Amino acid sequence: xxxALSEKLQATLASLRSRGTLTEQDVTAxxxxxxxxxxxxxxxxxxxxxxxxxxxxxxxxxxxIGQLNPGQQVVKxxxxxxxxxxxxxxxxIEFASSPPTVILMVGxxxxxxxxxxxxLAHYLQAEHHSTVAVAACDxxxxxxxxxxxxxxxxxxxxxxxxxTERSPVEIAKWALERAKQDGKDVLIVDTxxxxxxxxxxxxxxxxxxxxxxxxxxxxxxxxxTGQDAVNxxxxxxxxxxxxxxxxxxxxxxxxxxxxxxxxxxxxxPILFASLGEKRDQFERFHxxxxxxxxxxxxxxxxxxxxxxxxxxxxxxxxLEARLRQGEFxxxxxxxxxxMMRRMGPLQGLLSMIPGLGTQLRGMKVDERxxxxxxxxxxxxxxxxxxHPELIKGARRLRIARGSGTSVQAVNQLVKxxxxxxxxxxxxxxxxxxxxxxxxxxxx
Amino acid sequence: xxxxxxxxxxxxRKPTQxxxxxxxxxxxxxxxxxxxxxxxxxxxxAVDEDGEDADGRRRGAFSRLRESLRATRQxxxxxxxxxxxxxxxAHDWDALEESxxxxxxxxxxxxEIVSGLESTVRRxxxxxxxxxxxxxxxxxxEATVTGGAPLHIDLRPEPTVILMVGxxxxxxxxxxxxxxxxxxxxxxxxVLLAAADTxxxxxxxxxxxxAERAGADIVTAAAGSDPGSVAFDAVARxxxxxxxxxxxxxxxxxxxxxxxxxxxxxxxxxxxxxxxGAPHETLLSLDATTGQNGLRxxxxxxxxxxxxxxxxxxxxxxxxxxxxxxxxxxxxxxxKLIGIGEALEDLRPFDPDEFARALIE
Lengths: 443, 361
Description:
Radius of gyration of chain B: 20 Å
Shape of chain A: flat
CATH architecture of the domain at 153-352 in chain B: 3-Layer(aba) Sandwich
Largest sheet of chain B: 8 strands, mixed
CATH class of the largest domain in chain A: Alpha Beta
Number of helices of chain A: 20
Radius of gyration of chain A: 26 Å
CATH superfamily of the largest domain in chain A: P-loop containing nucleotide triphosphate hydrolases
Strand content of chain B: 5-15%
Oligomer: heterodimer
Order of helices and strands of chain B: HHHEEHHHHEEHEHEHEHEHEHEEH
Strand order of the largest sheet of chain A: 3-2-4-1-5-6-7-8
CATH topology of the largest domain in chain A: Rossmann fold
CATH class of the domain at 153-352 in chain B: Alpha Beta
């Protein structure tokens, strides 16, 4: 199975620490790992080649003195390049100077156009207070119009549909007139899924594009797409003036390297991420998060970096220093728990920890358990939090009562914490800890 | 040990290099409907209205597939194709490895396969056309599952229950529609559809349209009702009214969403409770465009509902579905059917030779 890139790089470049600069050979060794990681993430081979060439140029000869270690340094370069490639200038929907703004949704069958159309309608109403109508131009797939009517109406949008008798081009034209008459701010045109190699259907899309003159043409792409993403993006891009893309099914566990392929082929930004069956599970695309996901990056230090961004840089630096000196106490643990909660669902966070992901596959994180841990720590005195080894007998009973838990629960936390602290000390000494041990009960 | 794990461990013992008589081993693979479907009248008794023999029909099907793959072949295959006219150099093997990677076979699997092929070819001292054919044969063998699920679909149980599962948008409903048409029109069977996707808006309506086209009957329930009860009712009705086959459509679900996978396992249990031995065939619908995540999908669905085969859909695009090769290697789950278009007859038995050829052409 795929292990964390950073761990592999650390192993590959372990001998480098003393030398201080990365040589051509070191970089070549590192790039081999990066290539495999990107391929595993479904980044297209050609894109991988271009990307690794760019990283090589930046990495060779870079100064690594004072850095954590050479592996981290290379990962940092890769991550920065990746985030830049994925991100670029802040991207958003282009609104027309005079309404309605027309957004054309295109993509392969099953990529999630209809769902994304309804979610986008919901998003634009909620975030931009726009009045939104959708045009039902998928006359191909059985019951596609019924599906759009249901989901778009639920999302609060008006649906313009004329059944399956008229051509998609006529329906689109008619819907645009209706949208103008009804004074809608936005018209989203849902189209049937089609293969990029189907010339007739691609020509039809071109015609829809001509009659509606869209402000945005969004390619809807399944995050699970493999190497073929470049062909899809290139063909849709050749037939239509794409302005961006929407990445769907990101609630799955695909690394989503297709994002990089598409971005690199079309040169257009990824605007939205769709991640769930509910209509509000739709958000602006975050290049940073995607870069980490593609790399399978994330270790304890990355988690702290992430935490730092959620809180503030200084607090994070302090925490990191304390970690390395092994002065990690229950107060730190508590503030870390709180930061983690702020960063989002724990399940997602856990998946960021390399090695842990596969070993804890199927493990469910009980968020209430975290609340219980918080309650226990909050029932301790500040002195006890700094010196958990004091917690015995009467103190233990008091804490259990105060937190509404049991003596066993308090005991378990103290033991677990001692174990975590041991692991943290290993990190501080620069050793890669046995992260999986964090998920095991202490012996 | 779950069936999925058992299959995985037996597959992992499968050597990459091939030896011994390959032809008879490959001959066991279904390349035609007559071979794929095991019916009560013996092998499928499809009638040749058009007078074409089975081989002719097969050629027809795959010439279409090949036609649709032409664009990609030209784009990326020329280098590899040129290669096979002479003895292979290290550079050529790299090119072959890359073409497998571009076909979504996956980096590590591509490397292993190529090094296996390389040593076999060296040992056998092949070159030119002979070498090219041998490579196709070896790759086809890689795509052929041995020691896993049976390679045919057994329609002899009365009724035969086929459960269709997969991630959202992979083509479950469309596959069921085409399969229903095949079984009613070409095999003369009575088919009942079960609209157990009660979650997605208009999923039932979509399946109803397919039932009309295929001439099959359908059991439906209100949106949001229990999918297990739809499946149960359908199997009960099929038993009572003497249907030959029940095709159960389920809601698309991401394989990492545990409650949804648990729900699917329940649908399977409910079917088994209604009819011992059912579902007789559980098929995973897999989009050929899918990358490395396909392996995880197959593993998760195999763990939840024990897969008997894969339907590789959307092969009429430029994607080649190479992840199916990785799945065959790792999990020993065979591809049984492929989807190559939107028409009713665009569902075909899987042919490993053609699949292998497309991978490197």
